[in-house]
Each structure stands twice: as structure tokens, then as C-alpha cells.
UniProtKB/TrEMBL annotation:
This is Uncharacterized protein. It comes from Aphis gossypii (Cotton aphid).
Length: 164
């Protein structure tokens, strides 16, 4: 049986969002993203569109896969059982509404791979580019960032304790 881990490739941002000095760190079999992020806008984020692109094994040829449109983001940020919960719980100050802070520290951020493979079991066959577009009311684009990642499968050794 394979165990899966996330492998991050790249993180970048567009207008009004700046990522400062980020690093991809690893502890045992898990990778984490650490760094600083700034949201330079007076608009308050209320809606998010996450656009998923499925890429070949080299991460070069990508095709549109699906879009998640999340409205009224505030109550969803508090829910501990979402695919993004581990990611946003790694932000300091916490990503809670109103999203009016400018500077955030990201510490040991990752996603819950178990939920990802539960929603789409073939996710491990591809590399992924996820673009998160953040909007204020009236569809005003606040900014976006993209995350390039893949899933790494490996066999975990099971220690048998034989008792005669």
C-alpha cells in the first residue's frame, strides 16, 4: 500500500499579493511552505475562485480541470474539515474575517492530502497548478497566487513484532 505526500514545486503571486522569502522545507516525509505574504489592498476579500489545472508528469503540459467558486468565505475559513483548513491555519495572524491584515507569516503550511485523494483518487497521477483568485464584493479582483505541486507515493515500512 502506498502512502502519499505533497511535493511543492513553486509558489507565485500576482497583483496586490506579494510573497516574501518563502522556502519549501521538509521534515521526515512531509513538505511545508514557510515565508511571508502581503495583501496590499484596501478591499476586503469575500469570494475565492480556485482554478485547478491538471498537468503531465513533467508539469509542462497543463489542461483545465475544474473551478471551485467559494462565496462568503468568512465562515468557511473557520471550518476545520476543509481541504484548505491545514493551509490557512498556518497563517499568523490567523486568516479570519475581516481579512484586513496586510502582512501574514506562513509557518509549516501544507494541505490535507487525504481529503484531496478522497475527492479525486487519480490526483496522484498528475502534477497540479492551483490558481486562487481572491475577490472583494462586486467581483473586484484583490489578487491571486498559484501553487504548483504533485503527489509523491512511497511504501512505508511496517515493523512486525513477531512473538512466538
Amino acid at each position: 500500500m502506498l502512502t502519499y505526500s505533497v511535493r511543492y514545486k513553486k509558489l507565485d503571486a500576482k497583483p496586490n499579493i506579494t510573497i516574501h522569502h518563502y522556502s519549501i522545507d521538509q521534515y521526515k516525509d512531509v513538505q511545508f511552505i514557510n515565508g511571508n505574504i502581503s495583501i496590499n489592498s484596501k478591499e476586503l476579500i469575500n469570494n475565492v475562485n480556485a482554478v485547478f489545472y491538471r498537468c503531465d508528469s513533467d508539469g509542462i503540459n497543463c489542461e483545465y480541470f475544474q473551478t471551485w467558486k467559494i462565496t462568503d468565505i468568512c465562515p468557511k475559513l473557520k471550518d476545520p474539515n476543509q481541504l484548505w483548513s491545514r493551509w490557512y491555519s498556518s497563517f499568523d495572524p490567523p486568516m479570519l474575517c475581516p481579512l484586513d491584515k496586510v502582512h501574514y507569516i506562513i509557518k509549516n503550511a501544507t494541505i490535507d492530502i487525504g481529503l484531496g485523494t478522497l475527492l479525486y483518487p487519480q490526483a496522484t497521477d498528475y502534477q497540479w497548478k492551483v490558481v486562487q483568485n481572491m475577490y472583494a464584493d462586486n467581483n473586484i479582483l484583490v489578487g491571486s497566487y498559484s501553487l504548483h505541486l504533485s503527489f509523491f507515493g512511497y511504501r512505508k515500512r511496517i515493523k512486525y513484532t513477531f512473538k512466538p
